[in-house]
Amino acid sequence: MNPLAEQNLLLTRRHFFSRFGLGLGTAALASLLGEHGFANPDEDKPGLPGVPHFAPKAKRVIYLFQSGAPSQLDLFDAKPHLEKYRGQNLPDSIRQGQRLTGMTAYQSSFPTAPSMFKFGQHGQSGATLSELLPHTAKQVDKLCFIKSMHTEQINHDPAITFALTGFQLAGRPSFGSWISYGLGSENKDLPAFVVMVSLGTGNTGDQPLYDRLWGSGFLPSRYQGVKFHNNEDRVLYLSNPPGITSDVRRRFLDDLAKLNQQNADKFGDPEILSRVAQYEMAYRMQSSVPELTDLSKEPEATFERYGPDARKPGTYAANCILARRLAERGVRFIQLFHRGWDQHNNCPKQITNQCRDTDQPTAALLMDLQERGMLDDTLVIWGGEFGRTVYSQGQLSATNYGRDHHPRCFTIWLAGGGIKPGLTIGETDDFSYNVVRDPVSVFDLNATILHCLGIDHTRLTYKFQGRYFRLTDVHGEIIKRILV
User: DSSP string covering 345-375, please?
Assistant: First the structure.
């Protein structure tokens, strides 16, 4: 059969009306897409009309996600009196029959394991920190600690997914994708959402991370995070193949865009225009990314500030430098995942190594932002997916212990755009097991981060399968106490 005649026979009523509606031309198509929240790829700063909803305190976010769950007991939540309970079984009145992971649920006992590390008060705020964080200790007056975080998930993958998408099952848009969708980018040559992953020396066999953690879910794919890799080709497939010049690539993309536009006019699928926008972004990134990732022009003082790993591509220290450079260039959401915090055994040695990887670069990033006048409008977040147990996983000795997953309480900190500095909120019980004052949920935290960006978390929504979804689902209360 003639292909054109076959197409006419297969044309459904729905296809007919979709083609008719889009037959008004490219201008009408762009208008329709704008109405439904799909930004025009040709705009310099694509984002939703009317967003931000009010004047923002922060223009961008740097999320230092410590994957694997740092032990609050060994870093932030000092419980010196626990020494008198060393080795004693965790009281049932504290545990309250709460669920445990399969790794410790069948232990014959739950011996209390006080931290081996010393704590001290620092700065004018008097914030309490472990000796493992000497560089961060010098920055405490810039920080706001929340010691009463809690989550609904007890295992890594659903907990990280929950923290970053608002749901424990895969498929929803990530935090950065929501920001990219709502606010767009301030730099048309770089993505609005960039991700980097590093592996620390705390646990070199730590939990893997999946690309869906920075995926766009049911949002158009142009809003997904762009992962910077740790090899020479920082963004996959960005380089031209052998024999292909920049001019040839430009002509190829122009012709491809015409074909894609024809399909968009015909089928009305906004994902086609997302594909066009992604091709164009990749072309522009061929110039912007090499300049961004070339650290050779950074002064020697920068590398000294960020520590001994700062010159090694792919390390947390090097990624922190890149995070500052991305922030300087207007990238909206920069997420650094640092693996190695899952310390089920040999915790004292592993967490010491992990802090050595992260403490100095984190403090250096804060200093850099402040010196450049950027901390006031950059929101920095440091934290993981949950905390660690006060009882030892496995055998407890005088020099060693392990800690299992603990969702009931953990500590994070925030700094910069819109957050009160030098503040600590929240309190846990005597065993750092349950929150006893000012509980803060993952939904509350995410609602507050959006608020700092000038976004009403109840109004940043997307209709999918007949329902309006949002990052905070039907939950979330802004933590007003920590706002400037």
Answer: SSHHHHHHHHHHHHHHHHHHHHHHHHHTT-G
67 lies in some domain:
yes
Residue 182 in tokens: 């709502």
pLDDT 10s digits, 294-326: 999 999 999 999 999 999 999 999 999 999 999
Distance from CA of residue 449 to its chain's centroid? 11
CA–CA dist 109, 113 (Å, integer): 12
Structure tokens at 99: 């669920």
Tokens, residue 212: 């869906």
Residues β-bridged to residue 464: 467
- C-alpha 176/C-alpha 221 separation (Å) is 12
Query: Distance of alpha carbon 87 from its chain centroid, rounded?
Result: 37
**Residues 6 or more apart in contact with residue 470 via CB below 8 angstroms:** 166, 457, 458, 460, 461, 462
5 within a domain of the structure (yes/no) = no
pLDDT per residue as tens digits for the range 107-152: 999 999 999 999 999 999 999 999 999 999 999 999 999 999 999 9
The domain containing residue 302 runs over which residues? 10-482
For residue 260, the surrounding DSSP H or E stretch is helix 246-267
Parallel, antiparallel, or unpaired for β 143-150 and 410-416? antiparallel
Domain count, the chain: 1
Q: Is residue 1 part of a domain?
A: no
Contact 413, 144 (CB under 8 A): yes
